[in-house]
Amino acid sequence: MKDGDLLLIEDNPDDVILTKRALKQHNIANEIVVAHDGVEALEYLRGEGAYAGRDTNILPNVILLDLKMPRMGGLEFLKIIRSDERTKLLPVVILTSSREERDVVESYNLGANSYVQKPVDFDQFTAAVKELGLYWLLLNVVPSGGK
Amino acid sequence: MEDMEKITAKTLIEAMLDPVMVLNQKGIILEMNSAVQRLFGYGKKKATGKHFLELSYEPAALPKELKRIKSDFNSAVKEGTGIAFEYEYITKKGKSVIVSFNGSILKEATEQTINVVTILRDVTERKKADEIRREREEKYKMLLTTMPTGWAYHKIILDKYNKPADYVFLEVNDAFEEFTGLKREDIIGKRVTKVIPDIEDAEPDLISFYGNVALTGKSDKLEFYFKPLDKWYSVSVSSPEKGYFFVNFQDITERRRVEEVLKESHHFLRERVKEMTCLLGVSELFRDSSKTLDNAFFEMTDVIRQGLQYPNETCVRICVGDQQYESDGCIVTDWQLSADIGLDGTPMGVIDVFYSEEKPEVDVGPFLKEERELIKALGRQVGAALERRRAEEALKKSEQELALRNRIAQVFLTVAEDEVMYDDILTIVLETLDSEFGVLGYIDKDGAFVVPSMTRHIWDQCKVTDKMLLFPRDTWGDSTWPRAIREKRSICQNESSMLTPQGHIPISRHISLPIIHHGDVIGLFQVANKRMDYDEKDVQKLENVAQHVAPILSARLQRDWKEEERERTVKKLEVAIQELESFSYSVSHDLRAPLRGIDGFSKVLLEDYSDIIDETGQDYLRRVRVAAIRMNQLIDDILSLSRVSRAELCIEKVDLTTLANAIVAELRERELDREVEIKISEGLIAYGDKRLLRQVMENLLANAWKFTSKHSSARIEFGLTTRDEESVYFVSDDGAGFDMKYADKLFGVFQRVHSADEFEGTGVGLAIVKRIVNRHGGRVWAEGGVEKGATFYFTLSIERSEGDS
How far apart are CA B483 and CA B487, in angstroms? Predict the structure, then answer.
């Protein structure tokens, strides 16, 4: 798989490890780029900062986005990429521990494609990631502009 | 000689043209001339020797008449007087002739022979005419006698100057007797001055009047009251011949009397109508509220004048208080009629009526009794009208005050913005007091004088740089408004002595009036620059306004202060809620992340390192996971409880039966091997928030499911029953039940009556149920016993809501 298959935006290193493990376990993505907050993720997408010089033509097939992060949270990040012509159609799956109704609603309002709650139970978490992977596979088949 | 005389006599007789006969003393015809022959048709030879009465062809007269004439003749002969009679003959030709005899007795010297020479005359025609006249007279007399009008025939008597001085009654008829009361027999042939001695002095002078007709022959008519007889007569007088006159008359006393009464009553009525019109007119004047009292009184002078008998000779003056109203060209005379204005009690004024003709010697006055009463009535009427007007004005004034009060209250009630409200009130006050400039302010909590409203356009003209609207108490100084506030009294100044900052618009005159509520000054009105001086009335008006404003302003200020207080509290609460929410949020997010790490890495250890961790270690790791998951469950429950409290209710129709069936189906799905008999009543419909009610049903049914899990078979029921006439839902089971001792603890947060080993759970479920039921206005309670099952009851008081059918 190519560079930037999946962009995981997550500040909690535990969750990064566990997510990565679950993804691998289910053989979903080879290349996982991790950004620790919205700012870093934007730099990645725009080829700025630490990612200066990156071929910005290569975009992730799917973005897994946490909501509560330092510097720039998930919702703000979502708002920004949805207002950018280049990234506005990128599939974004919210992956968060928040069960707050308003977070769900706001996410969909801002154009999230899916909302997955991170269960505390690791088994459930793995199952969720698996489903998420299937979803991503589905997106892989259908051209990203098709939706 | 004798013969000679006879021959001479014969010749003489023969020569006479009138029939002449010579009769002897027995009436035998001795001699006659040829005129006699022509009269009777009998010749001398045949006639001579016959009695003069036998010359008739047949006796025309009755024997009695014949006998009377013979007797007359005989006595005339005997006494030697002349004879004169008439006798009817039938001539030889059968014609009736009336012959009159006029004879004289001729005595011979010897007096032996007595002859009668008589001249005959044919009086037939004359007699007939007499007869006709007589009959006619009879008829007339009859007519006159019986005719209904009085009739009299008189002869006038002249004095020595040929002036009529008296008259004599010649004939009267029955009606005359009746109409005059005079008897025919007492008056015929008598002079009127004898019959009615008063006639000479009576009006009219009838003797002259009648005399004139009798002398001139010109008929005349007259109606008059004849005092001597106390009667009214209508007479027509005519004269048949000079010196005589007929009077034809009627007694019209009755008619005249009726006429007189009619005339009097007509006059009476006309005057009364005038008076009534006058009374009505005056009452109309005062009823017309658009007319000022001045105008009403002025017009009244003329209305009264028109109500009097002689409007043109009368003038009216009305004095009320210090005002005086007069009709045009009023002349004050001694002939005066006055009446007080007013009902009983002190008079409010006086109405004077003056008659402008000179006062006569005898002071009977020109005023009728009715007029006196009219003026008196007017005085009372005007008095009543004045009292009514005054009452109306008082009412109007109080209505105006009420309207003003309403306007002010309206502003206070409807205008929320402070500045607009105070401006509106001030505008009303300035309007009411006709003032150009004004201030309305209140004393704030710190005792400062705050002026939220001032006549803006004027204030903007002020060149005072510091347009301070808040005056702390220590800056007040000693001008009039602080004095008014400090001394709690209104200060009214009509000279421009008010201290104003340089550049402030000049204040020519003003009133400063504190608004006092329960003895405390809570604000101040200031009005200034009215065109005329302010007077007591203005102060009174402003005082009234202030009185109306005071309680409302006070309430408004209190409310504002309370509002501030409340706003502060709300803000505090909002902050607290925000904190709580962000706490919940971080709980749900931040507390979960480490838990996920704990569980996740325990799992990773179990999966990836099972070969180097022994069975006990693996058991511990599994316990770590259980604990983490349980903690997660606790977090979930706490959040869910707080959500239940915060969530807004969305009331709709909820089919509890369907809901319960769905929940039970899910429960069965989870534990397919359990044998549970479930009974759910049909058609249970409630009103409430569907999501929350689902949670109630879920929690209760899940509880029942859970607490029957230790039994091999179980029975769970959901239905509706009635307790104390109230519909009550219930969920019952025949499971583990509970000790009623703990019944009140069941619904507390984290309260559990069973150990976690026995039955899993966090102890929040029933707390959530209670909170939801409470939010639906209902109650929840439980009944049960250890190993005797449990029944949870709940009510929902929301029966129906708008928008639901």
Answer: 6
> Closest partner residue to A125 among B589, B600, B639, by Cβ?
B600
Alpha helices in B536-608 (DSSP H): 536-586, 592-608
The answer to whether B438 and B455 have CB atoms below 8 angstroms apart is yes
Tell me the CA distances in angstroms from B367 to B309, B342, B353, B371, B672, one per residue in order.
8, 22, 10, 6, 124
Buried-exposed string B209-219: b where 16+ CB fall within 10 A, e elsewhere: bbbbbbbeeee
Beta bridge partners of B102: B84, B119
pLDDT of B465? 58
Chain A positions in Cβ-Cβ contact with residue B648 (cut-off 8 Å): none
By Cβ distance, the residue of A12, A100, A122 closest to B593 is A12
CB contact under 8 A, A122 and B603: yes
Cβ atoms of A98 and A106 closer than 8 Å? no
Question: Which chain B residue is nearest to residue A15, measuring alpha carbons?
Answer: B597
Residue of B583, B592, B598 to mutate, interface with A, max A Cβ within 10 Å: B592
Q: 3-class DSSP state for residue B18?
A: coil
Amino acid of residue B164: P
| Residue B12: pLDDT band with limits 50, 70, 90 | confident
For the segment B377-391, what is each residue's pLDDT rounded down to a tens digit?
Answer: 888 888 888 888 778
User: To probe the interface with B, which of A100, A122, A123, A129 has the most B CB atoms within 10 Å?
Assistant: A122
Contact by Cβ (8 Å): A88, A111: yes
What is the model's pLDDT at position B716? 93
CA B109 to chain centre: 123
Whether residue B446 is predicted with pLDDT greater than 90 in this model: the reply is no
Chain A environment of B595 (Cβ under 8 Å): 120
Q: Are B524 and B532 in contact (CB under 8 A)?
A: no
CB contact under 8 A, B596 and A100: no
Q: Which of A111, A49, A121 is nearest to A74 (CA)?
A: A111
Spell out which residues of chain B touch residue A96, defining contact as CB-CB under 8 Å: 589
> Six-digit token pair at B371?
């007029």
Q: Which residue has the tokens 């150009």?
A: B436
B 610-629 near A (Cβ less than 8 A): 625, 628-629
Q: Which residue of A has its CA nearest to B598?
A: A120
- The Cα of B801 is separated from the nearest Cα of chain A by a number of Å equal to 26
Distance CA B520, CA B514 (A): 9
Across the strands, what pairs with B686? Answer: B654
Closest residue of chain A to B647, computed from CA coordinates = A101
Alpha-carbon distance B116 to B73, whole Å?
10
**Paired residues of B716 in beta bridges:** B678, B733
Per cent of chain B over pLDDT 70 is 92
* pLDDT the model gives residue B657: 93
Distance between terminal CA atoms of chain B?
178
Interface contacts (A, B; CB < 8 Å):
59
Q: Does the beta-carbon distance from B596 to A122 stay under 8 Å?
A: yes
Q: What is the pLDDT of residue B786?
A: 86
Tokens of B301: 């002078």
Distance from CA of A135 to the nearest CA of B (A): 23
Residues of chain A with C-beta less than 8 angstroms from the C-beta of B592? 97, 118, 120
Q: In sequence order, what are the beta bridge partners of A85?
A: none
- Measure the CA–CA gap between B626 and B602, rounded to whole angstroms: 10
pLDDT per residue as tens digits for the range B351-409: 888 887 765 555 556 677 778 888 888 888 888 888 887 787 788 888 887 888 788 87
HEC assignment per residue over B693-727:
HHHHHHHHHHHHHHHCCCCCEEEEEEEEEEECCEE
Chain A neighbors of B590, CB-CB under 8 A:
68
Q: CB of A117 within 8 Å of any CB in chain B?
A: no
The string of pLDDT tens digits covering residues B447-487 is 888 887 776 666 677 666 555 578 888 888 878 888 888 88
